[in-house]
Amino acid sequence: MKPDIDLFGVFVPTLLVLALGSYIALRLLSAVLARLGVYRHVWHPALFNLCLYFTVLGATVLFMEQVKS
Predict the structure, then answer these.
(1) Does the model's pTM come out above 0.90?
(2) Which positions, given as ranges, span the membrane (predicted)?
(3) How far apart are CA 56 and CA 17, in angstroms?
């Protein structure tokens, strides 16, 4: 994974771009899970969303590492 991404002359950390992408994916996944009624079975929805975000972010980072190789 490259340490920086050049965005119109501005160097942005790769992790920031992956974090924003993961947040967007989390919002979509959260909407799907809410539509399916999963949150009725979750004790603490905010904590569940936090853990889900880090899971999506970790999977995204691992995917990017595999693509690089």
Answers:
(1) no
(2) 7-26, 46-64
(3) 13
